[in-house]
Amino acid sequence: MQIRLDGTPVEVNPGESLLDIVKRLGLDTDSLKTRPIAADIAGEVFTLNYIPMRQKEQGDGITTYRMRKAIRKGSGEVKLIRYGESRGRAIYERTVIYVFFLAMRELYPKAHAKVNYAIGPSIDISVDLEPQFTPDDVEAIRAKMREIVEADYPLIRKRLDIDEAIRFFENDGQQDKVRLLRWRQFTYFDVYSHGDYVDYFYGEMLPSTGYAKVFDLQHRSGGLFLLRPSDADADVATRYVYMPNLVKVFARSDEWADLMHCRCVADLNDMVENGSVRELIRVNEALHERRFAEIATEIVNRGARAVLIAGPSSSGKTTSANRVATQLRVLGKTPILLSLDDYYIDRQFVKPDENGEIDYEHINMIDVAQFNIDLEKLLNGEQVEIPHFDFKTGSRQMLGHFVKMDDDAMLIIEGLHGLNPQLLTPRIDKKLIFKLYVSALTTLNLDDHNRIPTTDVRLLRRMVRDYETRGATIERTLGMWDSVKRGEQRWIFPYQESADAIMNTSLVYELAVLKKHIYPLLQAVESDSPSYDEVVNIIKFLNYISDAAVEDEIPPTSILREFVGGNTFYR
Questions:
Q1: In terms of DSSP H, where are the helices of 471-554?
Q2: Around Cβ 68, how many Cβ atoms within 10 Å?
Q3: Cβ neighbours of residue 293 closer than 8 Å, sequence gap 6 or more
Q4: Per-residue pLDDT averaged across 134-154, rounded?
Q5: Beta bridge partner(s), residue 450
Q6: What residues contact residue 297 under an 8 Å CB cut-off, 6+ apart?
Q7: Band of the pLDDT at 294, cuts 50, 70, 90?
Q8: pLDDT tens-digit profile of 542-567?
Q9: Under DSSP, is residue 367 helix (H, G, I), strand (E, B) or coil?
Q10: Backbone angles phi, psi at 212, to 5 degrees
């Protein structure tokens, strides 16, 4: 029988795995940039340990062979996944974390380690170890991880009855998994094991530990940073870069999570079940309001005259700009809100790149020169006519919107490139500019070993907003998401540490609300959709979260209102 591997016909032997086929064809390499690490079959991701054709023994001694369901469904088409894809990077990260926890189990079986969140190119992991976690311990863990990689242990998934899994994790002391599994809606649970270490990571893994060669570790007080492959060269671990602003904002978010007694999905589900989620919403929103007030005070104390706001997609930039404006009014200022979008150049003057494509998120899409002229004049007290960009016609228009700043005025300028240094010429006094970065930096995790990427939460926000306010399908939003993320990597993330303040716009309760909006839309996506695999993964994740009908509790100025509707700033 045949399959088509990346479009090439290949004969399949009974019992042969995809990994066997990849090696037989000479496609396996030592380079993470080119090495196949998983497979896409009929829109779903499968481990390379997947066996396309099984042997089946009949009772009369006759042997038959059967192609697996996914292979039949996909008409034999198999697409190899490599690290360069976002789902390939997620698979790699899960496996390296598995190797880390296996090393911890072998070296420090009584220690407690917890994956927290990604800070730039590194993953923050806390380690509770007596008497003290030291750089020498990090060296020992690194060496043990290298040993595990060299041993090349196969990562074979095993299915357990859900009650059996709960009993095991209870006896093993992994109470975080016990609590989460009590919310699982299925009667089974899949695990990976080696020796006495049994664990699960929510998604496919590499075929063996030998694939997870590229990583490094960096000690920090009370834990370490796990460094992922470099974006520039996937065969080399990224260098550790200290990012004090992000570290500080995550530390504040950790304090908030402790204050609200909500650090993981099981905590949130418990609150939804017992009704205390309403108090959680009130406290979470009050913390947001206090932080916006602190930022407004910082702006005024700095003597700034203009606030530049930037952040990745679906971070709540527009609502944040309005809430900062409200707090500035409390301090006696007169805010003037502007959008960088109005400085887009006319679409007729946009030229495609060498590939014939247009990057609408490029800094050159903004008329930077005109923006600088207008900003300089405004800061000098001159009157300026602000343009309006009409997205329907793709052109910039002058509609008589004149602005002049008096002594109490404060410009608030929001846009994708708000922190880009090209926006400010040398003639503009930088002391008059306050740079604010906003992003949904969630610290809520599934359990101690499985973090929820901040990108995933922003994607949920965007899918809900695009459907509710723009009539866009789930498939359309997902189809654009990789391009959006590439733009963020190029134009937003490199400048986040230059901000004078960072506002974490994530809300610890928001997943319970977003699920109610998005879940029916995801379930309606057909299996032949190009986005089906991504949709299935989102559904699997959301199955652990209890939805809450509490929108009457959400304030009309909440960040979340920008996505689920009812935001009074837009009336």
A1: 474-491, 510-523, 532-542
A2: 15
A3: 327, 330
A4: 97
A5: 447
A6: 327, 331
A7: very high
A8: 999 999 999 999 999 999 999 999 99
A9: coil
A10: -95, 55
* Alpha-carbon gap, residue 502 to 151, rounded angstroms: 43
Q: Contact 321/570 with Cβ under 8 angstroms?
A: no
CB 231 within 8 A of CB 238: yes
pLDDT of residue 531: 87
For residues 455 and 32, what is the distance between their CA atoms, to the nearest angstrom? 23
In this prediction, residue 57 has a pLDDT band, given cuts at 50, 70 and 90, of low
User: For the chain, first and last CA: distance in Å?
Assistant: 62
Average confidence (pLDDT) over 181-209: 90
Pairing of strands 188-194, 197-199: antiparallel
Q: What is the pLDDT of residue 103?
A: 97
Query: Is the pLDDT score of 506 beyond 80?
Result: yes
Q: Which residue has the tokens 């095991």?
A: 168
Strand, helix or coil at 395? Answer: strand
**Cα-based torsion angle of the residue sequence 50, 51, 52, 55 in order, rounded to the nearest 10 degrees:** -160
The b-or-e profile of 385-404 (16+ CB within 10 A means b, else e) is ebbebeeeeebbeeeeeebe
Pairing of strands 334-339, 44-46: unpaired
- Taking a C-beta distance cutoff of 8 angstroms, is the pair 179, 546 a contact? no
Cis peptide before 335 (omega within 30 of 0): no
- 524 touches 475 (CB < 8 A): no
**Gyration radius of the chain over CA positions:** 26
Q: Does residue 445 contact residue 427 with C-beta atoms inside 8 Å?
A: no
